[in-house]
């Protein structure tokens, strides 16, 4: 049975919250009103995975979640409650940290001759040394020679198989490389059978032989020889003893171990070498996640077979596609996926910058909603106070000039290119150098010049990437604009480089030179600009630019400071027209701050004087907690915003967050170059801050002054999301107040038992009683349940076909009202800038369309015509009106009729 996706509820599956646990909350989610459970990836992941994005086997369900049997039970539980399922899938990369990935293990054992060598995005020809056709594995804790001489890499035998072990890392052994070891063992014990195996191993086809006959013979013969060797070792103790002695002799001799390692299809290296010499595409800069060649049809089929089977059987109804910008040709990938699953709901984790649109040619429903998150978040920022926050930020951090976010972003993108993506840049430069040789006007450019031009170019894109298709004859105007803009920016940043160099690279990117190598270069540039932007912006600049951290979210421009109602409504109307079934998100597993943290912080934009006074007072009081010049002003300002936004927060949570933040900022410490002294200073500052009674009192007073307004912001944001054009997603636990920070903080256990009890309670309470329990989160739970239930009960009103019409209020406080109509049958009334409003609506009214209406949150009946906001929102802070065909029943309790105003 296929269900129309009207709303989703995201759950994070892992060993501590498996399929059994998920099955136990299905009835609660059904009562809440969602139509689909939206699951984190659950194909077989690396051992101990807490997120599922490190897939090692696409053909099976994660055993740590309960495996196939538990998965079937979970799916049955969904079916019994009438719920559907959406699955997060990861087509771009796989985890390669252990033997669990059979494909990668086979590649390491057999090199280019592996049947899976073409599955991974490995450049076998690229190498900075003589080890061509060897995959660099940068996993050693020190230089290779020191590790070998310290005997930290060992050869181990398990039956007739052999592995190389470095602590917890295990690697296969090329069977040909075992020949000398087996031969010596045969000489030790005088076994002609063992000597025969050694000779036969040496005659296996080379791992570089990639013709079909050679690869088939290699794989066939090595299996036969492995069985024969196992039999000899099992049946003949002298053979077993001689072999084990020879293994130990190799382990005891650094030269022999070095020789053995030199014959493998991989090169073990110091982990720092990854900065320059990796020969495979990664997910960003994570060495353990290797890129897949999803453009290859065999790879697509083998990685999607199980998921497509579930789609065809109706086990799942939709997919969330992770990191599409890593794919070689996203459009072709989505077309292939759509052909395989024509009826599936498909949304993609495409990060759009402000003003950027999803490509119309992609056969998908839309994005996963970060663009919606950014747009709605800006709606609650009070723009007229921008200058005040800009000026105070400049003074707080001690900058002589106003802090320019876009300049900072450019610097951080350049840093990422040089520090994190050096190996990608070196491969790109090698490819470009080969291309330049074939063009007489450009062959005299040096490798260094080409590298510098490429480095500045890939960091000059204003969006994540362009989408020029290598087989295209005509490219889209949008791609031409993006590329031309990037080339112009790059040339302006490096006027010392020959402008013809940039012009030539731009021409290649626009396919003006149609050669195969040129098109390959264009593709590789496109696959790299996304990681540059992602790592430069969300994983670096966002932690360095702390003017107003509520705006530092994926896809956002933190330099902006608020939008008007007209811009918001225009965006919503475009969404209704172009992507009415796209996902709507406000909190996700990847957001830097939960929706409630951001909405509390948004209130600060209304009261700059109070905020500045608080920071000045706290800074002066905490001056004795400092150690010299640390914490630096940026980090200190981040700490103050974080503690107010996430309060109450204990020291371990705040320390963990700040430690991650300073490492991501990469100024005084980083993930790869940890400054323990600096991190200890930061840790001590946080501990002393939260242990100081006066500081805590100041924090509590500041939070208390904005908390009610922050909660009203949260209610308005939740209501907008749940009723706007699209498919709203509720991130696990966020139906109540949730003041979480970036992962892993936002992946803490959720108390579903408490939520189940509260949900049962609100159905029996009036709005007044619900509001008395605001501290427990009941208003947000009531709003979430009523909106989700309306969406499920009346899909024609809030579903993809429902139109969108803005409603504008009139009067002194009209700008505080966010209202719209869906399908002329549901009205959303939210509030913004509640602190400045202070409940004083004065003469502000909203013209309610014709018909009889019921407010699902207060229970009040509402009549058509101009209605005072003071009356509409008297019983509940926001309103969700449903048009009723018949006269609504008489209200009891705190439900009231809101009569039409008297006629003049």
Secondary-structure blueprint of this entry?
Blueprint: E1 8-11, H1 19-23, H2 26-32, E2 36-39, E3 43-45, E4 55-61, H3 67-80, E5 84-89, E6 93-95, H4 102-110, E7 135-140, H5 144-149, E8 153-158, E9 161-166, E10 169-172, H6 179-189, H7 192-202, H8 212-235, H9 237-252, H10 254-262, E11 266-270, H11 274-277, E12 282-283, E13 286-291, H12 297-313, E14 318-321, H13 330-340, E15 345-348, E16 366-367, H14 370-379, H15 386-397, H16 405-419, H17 422-437, H18 447-458, H19 477-493, H20 499-509, H21 516-544, H22 565-578, E17 583-584, H23 595-604, H24 608-621, H25 633-645, H26 651-665, H27 676-691, H28 693-723, E18 727-731, H29 752-762, H30 767-772, H31 778-793, H32 795-798, E19 804-807, E20 817-822, E21 826-831, H33 834-837, E22 845-855, E23 861-868, H34 869-872, E24 879-884, E25 897-898
Parallel strand pairs: 1-2, 1-18, 2-5, 5-14, 7-11, 14-15, 15-16, 17-18, 23-25
Antiparallel strand pairs: 3-4, 6-13, 8-9, 9-10, 12-13, 19-20, 20-21, 21-24, 22-23, 22-24
């Amino acid at each position: 049975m296929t269900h129309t996706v009207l709303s989703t509820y995201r759950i994070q599956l892992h060993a501590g919250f498996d399929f059994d646990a998920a099955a136990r909350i299905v009835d609660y989610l059904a009562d809440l009103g969602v139509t689909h459970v939206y699951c984190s990836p659950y194909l077989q992941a690396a051992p101990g995975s807490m997120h599922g994005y490190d897939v090692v086997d696409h053909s099976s369900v994660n055993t740590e979640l309960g495996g196939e049997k538990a998965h079937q039970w979970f799916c049955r539980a969904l079916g019994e409650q009438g719920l559907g399922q959406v699955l997060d899938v990861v087509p771009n990369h796989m985890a390669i940290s252990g033997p669990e990935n059979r494909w990668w293990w086979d590649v390491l054992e057999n090199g280019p001759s592996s049947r899976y060598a073409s599955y991974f995005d490995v450049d076998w020809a690229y190498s900075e040394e003589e080890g061509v056709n060897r995959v660099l594995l940068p996993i050693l804790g020190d230089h290779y020679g020191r590790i070998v001489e310290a005997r930290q890499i060992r050869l181990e035998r398990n039956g007739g198989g052999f592995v190389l072990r470095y602590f917890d890392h295990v690697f296969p052994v090329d069977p040909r490389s075992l020949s000398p070891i087996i031969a010596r063992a045969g000489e030790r014990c005088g076994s002609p059978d063992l000597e025969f195996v050694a000779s036969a191993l040496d005659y296996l086809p080379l791992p570089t032989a990639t013709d079909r006959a050679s690869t088939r013979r290699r794989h066939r013969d090595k299996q036969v020889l492995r069985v024969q060797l196992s039999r000899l070792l099992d049946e003949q103790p002298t053979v077993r003893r001689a072999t084990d002695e020879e293994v130990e002799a190799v382990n005891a001799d650094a030269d022999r171990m070095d020789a053995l390692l030199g014959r493998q299809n991989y090169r073990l290296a110091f982990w720092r070498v990854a900065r320059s010499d990796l020969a495979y595409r990664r997910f960003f800069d994570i060495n353990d996640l290797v890129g897949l060649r999803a453009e290859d049809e065999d790879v697509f089929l083998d990685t999607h077979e199980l998921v497509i089977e579930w789609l065809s059987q109706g086990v799942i109804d939709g997919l969330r596609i992770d990191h599409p910008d890593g794919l070689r040709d996203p459009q072709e990938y989505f077309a292939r996926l759509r052909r395989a699953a024509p009826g599936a709901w498909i949304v993609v984790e495409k990060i759009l910058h402000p003003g950027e649109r999803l490509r119309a040619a992609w056969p998908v429903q839309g994005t996963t909603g970060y663009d919606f998150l950014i747009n709605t978040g800006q709606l609650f920022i009070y723009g007229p106070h921008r200058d005040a926050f800009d000026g105070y930020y400049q003074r707080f951090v001690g900058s002589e000039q106003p802090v320019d976010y876009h300049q900072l972003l450019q610097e951080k993108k350049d840093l990422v290119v040089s520090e994190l993506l050096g190996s990608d840049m070196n491969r790109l430069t090698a490819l470009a150098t080969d291309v330049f040789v074939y063009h007489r006007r450009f062959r005299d450019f040096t490798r260094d010049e080409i590298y510098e031009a490429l480095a500045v170019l890939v960091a000059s894109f204003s969006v994540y990437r362009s989408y020029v298709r290598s087989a295209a004859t005509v490219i889209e105007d949008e791609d031409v604009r993006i590329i031309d803009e990037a080339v112009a920016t790059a040339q302006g940043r490096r006027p010392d480089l020959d402008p013809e160099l940039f012009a030539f690279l731009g021409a290649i990117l626009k396919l003006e030179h149609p050669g195969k190598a040129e098109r390959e270069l264009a593709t590789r540039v496109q696959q790299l600009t996304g990681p540059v932007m992602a790592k430069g912006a969300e994983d670096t600049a966002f932690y360095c630019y702390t003017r107003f951290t509520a705006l530092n979210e994926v896809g956002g421009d933190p330099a902006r400071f608020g939008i008007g109602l007209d811009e918001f409504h225009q965006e919503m109307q475009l969404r209704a027209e172009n992507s009415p079934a796209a996902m709507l998100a406000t909190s996700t597993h990847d957001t830097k701050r939960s929706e409630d943290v951001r909405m509390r912080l948004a209130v600060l934009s209304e009261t700059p004087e109070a905020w500045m006074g608080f920071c000045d007072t706290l800074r002066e009081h905490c001056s004795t907690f400092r150690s010299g010049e640390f914490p630096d002003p940026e980090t200190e300002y981040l700490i103050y915003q974080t503690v107010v936004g996430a309060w109450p927060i204990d020291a371990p949570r705040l320390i963990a967050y700040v430690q991650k933040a300073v490492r991501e900022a990469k100024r005084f410490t980083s993930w790869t170059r940890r400054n323990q002294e600096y991190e200890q200073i930061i840790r001590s500052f946080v501990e002393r801050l939260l242990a100081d009674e006066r500081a805590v009192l100041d924090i509590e007073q500041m939070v208390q002054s904005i908390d009610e307004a922050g909660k009203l912001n949260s209610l308005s944001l939740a209501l907008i999301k749940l009723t706007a054009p699209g498919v709203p997603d509720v991130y696990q636990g966020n139906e109540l107040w949730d003041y979480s920070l970036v992962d892993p903080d936002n992946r803490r256990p959720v108390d579903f038992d408490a939520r189940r009890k509260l949900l049962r309670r609100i159905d029996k309470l009036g709005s007044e009683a619900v509001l008395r329990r605001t501290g427990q989160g009941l208003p947000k739970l009531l709003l979430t349940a009523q909106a989700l239930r309306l969406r499920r009960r009346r899909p024609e009103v809030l579903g993809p076909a429902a139109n969108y019409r803005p409603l504008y209020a009139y009067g002194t406080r009209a700008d505080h009202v966010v209202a719209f109509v869906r399908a002329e049958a549901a009205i959303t009334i939210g509030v913004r800038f509640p602190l400045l409003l202070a409940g004083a609506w004065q003469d502000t009214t909203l013209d309610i369309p014709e018909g009889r209406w019921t407010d699902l949150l207060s229970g009040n009946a509402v009549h058509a015509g101009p209605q005072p906001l003071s009356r509409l929102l008297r019983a509940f802070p926001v309103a969700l009106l449903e048009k009723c065909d018949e006269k609504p029943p008489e209200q009891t309790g705190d439900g009231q009729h809101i009569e039409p105003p008297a006629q003049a």
